[in-house]
Design goal:
Blueprint: E1 3-5, E2 11-13, E3 28-30, E4 58-60, H1 83-88, E5 107-111, E6 122-129, E7 134-140, E8 143-146, E9 152-153, H2 155-160, E10 163-168, E11 181-190, E12 193-203, E13 207-208, E14 215-221, H3 228-246, E15 254-256, E16 268-276, E17 282-290, H4 299-305, E18 310-314, E19 332-335, E20 338-340, E21 343-345, E22 349-354, H5 365-373, E23 380-383, E24 396-400, E25 407-413, H6 414-429, H7 450-455, H8 459-481, E26 488-492, E27 495-500, H9 510-515, H10 517-525, H11 530-537, E28 545-549, E29 558-561, E30 564-568, E31 574-575, E32 578-579, H12 580-591, E33 595-599, E34 616-620
Parallel strand pairs: 4-12, 14-15, 17-18, 22-23, 25-26, 30-33
Antiparallel strand pairs: 1-2, 3-5, 5-10, 6-9, 6-11, 7-8, 7-10, 11-12, 13-16, 14-34, 16-17, 19-22, 20-21, 24-25, 27-28, 29-30, 31-32
């Protein structure tokens, strides 16, 4: 303060000069509380802006769909593109904002308007973490422009507040290499000094569907040709369509028609990405996860399915054999949301099968790493070494339930299957035919009787073994989820061996036993190579018995809605005018609150060592926020 003397000698304080401008302060914000808005006027989006957890932290989408349908599926002259080139194109592979004018696939980051800026103030933007996996845009004059190292933010923009958009170039594939986090820094420099602020976002996790999400659409292969088998398969597709409509599913079937691979469950796993969009609503992107197997049918995911709000992820395992069955996605199911032992799985938890027979065969390390790296559905491995195909969907499923937990476990019950046969035999029906299925295309129907089945060399022992294996897996599921015996639905089933090492007949002609040579030939002709391909790719340890469904596996069906279930027609022994397996299966699901219908898959899928679940896939509602229990 300056002082001066008056004429009387008094001390006079002169007016002080104006203070310098306030210290420069930069405040960058993202949607930390996930409500769809970047709040600038209060602190709802400031706490934790530099960290991330399942419950809190800004989220952005890997922008891997094709909103404008610009990605080619063929090259010059109509020649097929390589798998690598098919996978290389998506909305994030260019430097444009594709699709809707509101750029709904971009996560927003905004700066709080800065007042009292010196005239020479200028800003710059830098991705300080995760730059290789993301792209940042700045909104100028209503248009989105990519941010580069040369991008500068003007004083006028800083005074008004700047809006940025963030997209991911890919999903998280290996958290050891990139954990999905991105840090963005806005730095402002001027004659008054320099200041900066950063925010952290994380890529939305790639998640698989679970049974509590409503079924919206079914997927199935529709084969070409006019031979009897092809016509039978198309009849199956028509019946599936009818059952879909009866269950209230309004969207038409998605049909794969180009490559003839009928195992639609195996070459793709429908998944999804989800964040809260700028409009406050959940922004969901479907992602078709292509099997790690080298299956040509997976190309149709790019050629037919990919488009607006639908992307494709390829996870080819370097360590897998060409037809390794454990990489098929019939070997991937998802436990619904649960918490147990201090662990919480708000989006559910994946289960997969592995060979616990000393062979060391597991699903591809690359796909296991990708699934685990999402951080929410850490895969739980079960023992499927006793199954020839080796998929978890052959013996376990999850069903909605009006219980505090909200779901039950359904499991195949070989002991119940044996009881059905023994009860029928004791009731004097041992001479009844084991199967009521008619013949097909000149082949005779199976002639085996109940007496012959129970007297066979292996059937009883193999099903007792299967019961022990299922019980052991069920023990793991109970321990990991807290499910009790009262929450388990036991569905009658029977298995029969398809391979036994160290035996003179290592490849029992299962297909001929169940369906006749004509059906076997048709199965092989139309790509049903489960029998030979699985035998070649997953050689078991010596002495291992591997089985598959003898009676069509009822748990290997489709959950059409919360209370409607579609099972494969049983074609079991008919006694007193009723199929005893159909009656028992219906009773099991009815007790669980399910209405059961049946569709015939004997010659289309069953004789190929699969059922209707193996031949179909399900698109479910994924609009709910995955971070909320």
């Amino acid at each position: 303060m300056l002082l001066a003397l008056t004429t009387t000698g008094a001390v006079l304080a002169l007016p002080a000069p104006a203070y310098a401008a306030e210290p420069l302060r930069v405040d960058l914000r993202a949607d930390v509380n996930r409500d769809g808005r970047v709040d600038l006027t209060d602190g709802t989006d400031t706490a934790g802006e530099d960290t991330w957890s399942v419950a809190r932290g800004a989220v952005f989408l890997p922008n891997i769909d094709d909103d404008s349908k610009r990605c080619p599926t063929t090259g010059p002259g109509g020649r097929p593109l390589s798998d690598a080139k098919l996978a290389a194109c998506n909305d994030a592979s260019d430097k444009k904002v594709n699709g809707s004018a509101d750029a709904a696939d971009l996560a927003r980051v905004r700066s709080v308007p800065i007042r009292n800026l010196p005239s020479d103030a200028e800003g710059s933007v830098k991705v300080t973490k995760g730059a290789a996996q993301t792209r940042v845009f700045v909104k100028r004059n209503g248009a989105w422009k990519p941010v580069t190292s040369q991008t500068r933010v003007t004083r006028a923009e800083l005074r008004a507040g700047v809006e940025f958009g963030v997209e991911g170039k890919d999903v998280i594939r290996d958290s050891a290499q990139w954990d999905g986090r991105v840090a963005i820094r806005l730095k402002v420099a001027s004659s008054a000094g320099t200041a900066s602020d950063s925010v952290t976002l994380r890529a939305a996790p790639l998640l698989t569907h679970h049974a509590l999400q409503s079924t919206q659409q079914l997927m199935v292969t529709k084969v070409r040709g006019n031979d009897p088998w092809a016509k039978t398969q198309r009849k199956f597709v028509k019946e599936l369509e009818n059952e879909s409509r009866a269950a209230g599913i309004t969207k038409p079937l998605v049909t794969f028609e180009k490559y003839g691979d009928i195992w639609a469950q195996d070459f793709v796993e429908p998944a999804y990405l989800n964040m809260t969009g700028p409009d406050g609503r959940q922004r969901t992107m479907r992602v078709m996860l292509r099997s790690a197997q080298d299956r040509e049918a997976g190309r149709e995911l790019y050629e037919k399915v990919r488009g607006p709000n639908i992307g494709v992820v390829q996870a080819k395992g370097r360590d897998m054999q060409r037809w390794e069955t454990l990489n098929s996605f019939g070997n991937l199911e998802t436990i619904p949301p649960h918490a147990q032992g201090g662990k919480s799985f708000p989006a559910g938890r994946i289960i997969m099968g592995e060979r616990k027979d000393g062979s060391g065969v597991r699903p591809s390390k690359e796909i296991r790493t990708l699934l685990k790296s999402q951080g929410l559905q850490d895969p739980l491995l079960l023992d499927t070494s006793w199954l020839h195909v080796g998929h978890v969907d052959e013996f376990v499923q999850f069903l909605p339930a009006d219980t505090p937990r909200g779901w039950r476990i359904g499991v195949a019950d070989p002991e119940a299957g044996l009881r059905l046969l023994r009860d029928a035999q004791r009731g004097g029906h041992g001479a009844a035919k084991m199967f009521s299925v008619p013949g097909f295309d000149g082949a005779q129907a199976p002639k085996e009787t109940i007496d012959q089945a129970l007297a066979s060399r292996h059937l009883v022992g193999d099903n007792e073994m299967a019961a022990r294996k299922i019980a052991a897996n069920l023990g793991i599921l109970k321990r990991e989820t807290g499910v009790t015996d009262g929450e388990i639905v036991r569905v009658p089933a029977l298995y029969t061996r398809g391979m036994e090492t160290g035996d003179e007949g290592t490849r029992m002609p299962l297909l001929r036993r169940l369906g006749g040579s004509a059906a076997t030939e048709a199965a092989e002709t139309h790509g049903q190579q489960r029998f030979l391909d699985r035998a070649a790719s997953a050689a078991p340890a010596p002495g291992t018995v591997m089985t598959s469904a003898y009676v069509p596996g009822a748990v290997n069906g489709i959950l059409l809605s919360r209370d409607r279930y579609l099972a494969p027609r049983q074609w079991g022994p008919v006694i007193g005018g009723k199929d005893i397996f159909t009656e028992a299966v219906t009773a099991a699901y009815t007790r669980a609150g399910m209405k059961v219908s049946y569709v015939d898959d004997w010659y289309t899928y069953h004789v190929g060592m699969g059922e209707i679940h193996c031949g179909t896939n399900t698109l479910r509602d994924a609009s709910a926020a995955w971070w909320k229990p």
